[in-house]
Specification:
Layout lengths: L4 H18 L3 H16 L3 E4 L2 E8 L3 E6 L2 E5 L4 E2 L2 E2 L1 H14 L4 E10 L2 E10 L4 E6 L5 E6 L6 H4 L11 E4 L1
Parallel strand pairs: 2-7
Antiparallel strand pairs: 1-2, 3-4, 5-6, 7-8, 8-9, 9-10, 10-11
């Protein structure tokens, strides 16, 4: 990667053009769908003190044209409405809890909604035995639910919900 600011801008412009060009062929869209799925299945993570942040990026699904040159990932198996599906969140945190020892694990995901995206952050605060959910466009609101002893089983089995409408809303 170049260090020069102008060279970085040129690389960025070329990258956007290459990405847009992939949308115009079936093979290109298939390639992008595979990359999105791979990123979701193997998300990168970073740590900052006692917080582990995992970036799932875009929810995988079928890349489709909504309108002329307006592409979106639709029909995702990991979403429910405009948020991350409870079973998926719980399974992700169960895996992350086995893999990482940090006190707080934060998982971020972007849910495509046609021309817009909804950004979510799900934060498992282990020592409080709870999960807090924040929506990117509503930074003063947080939805919370208890996760006693880090038991994700009731969520995975569909006995409990992590959909914001089923959680306790708190205002910061």
């Amino acid at each position: 990667m170049p260090d020069d600011v102008d060279a970085i801008r040129r690389v960025t412009r070329r990258g956007r053009g290459s990405y847009a060009a992939l949308n115009h062929s079936e093979a290109g869209r298939a390639f992008l769908n595979v990359r999105i799925e791979e990123r979701y299945e193997n998300p990168p993570s970073s740590t900052n003190g006692k917080i582990r942040t995992v970036e799932y990026d875009t929810a995988p699904g079928v890349l489709e044209e909504k309108r002329r040159n307006n592409w979106a990932v639709l029909h995702s198996r990991v979403t429910q409405g405009q948020s991350w599906k409870t079973e998926e969140v719980a399974a992700a945190f169960q895996r992350l809890g086995e893999k990482y020892s940090e006190t707080v694990i934060s998982a971020r995901i972007r849910i495509p909604l046609g021309t817009n995206h909804r950004f979510w952050e799900y934060r498992w605060i282990r020592h409080q035995e709870r999960i807090a959910v924040k929506r990117g466009d509503m930074p003063s609101r947080v939805w919370v639910a208890d996760v006693p002893k880090g038991d994700w089983g009731p969520f995975i089995r569909g006995e409990r919900s992590l959909q914001p409408e089923d959680m306790e809303l708190q205002t910061l």
